[in-house]
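Q: Give me a protein?
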Amino acid sequence: MVTKYILTIFALAISGSLAQSCKNPQVEAASFTSLDATIVTQIAYITEFTLKCDNPLPANYALYAEVEGKPLTAARIAENRYQVSWTEEPSKARAGVHEVHIFDEEGWASLRRARRSDPSVTVAPLLAIQLQHPGSYSGPWVNSEVLATVLSIIVAYTALRSKSMILA
């Protein structure tokens, strides 16, 4: 029985020493959003970033993201390069700055534990990226068919009015 406890403590000590966290994170990010809502059913938000740390990170270093309370996974696309993406319906997509909070495994676990007791609690992220969405174009205020119909009615009214003045 004592051997099980010693092995458990030893395993926890080894896993704790092997788990690495990014020291002094530096990030370079680029973002993309869908701008034309007339031809798509979902607005896409994509941010790619390069993470540089003072210490070397393992090849399978996992990152997680949270955007406005929505949990996301950061996909690793190359060495030290990650991508976070999500979609929203055009009616719910808002223009402005979207804050993307990036967490490592330790921070993500802390956030999940804290949220179980209080859903409004915040945990400091490893880093935060700001994604600027200028808004999406959902078409003209007046469709061309409506404008053509209104102009046709105005031209017909003017023609008939002029005709009645000439004949009178």
The radius of gyration is 28 Å.
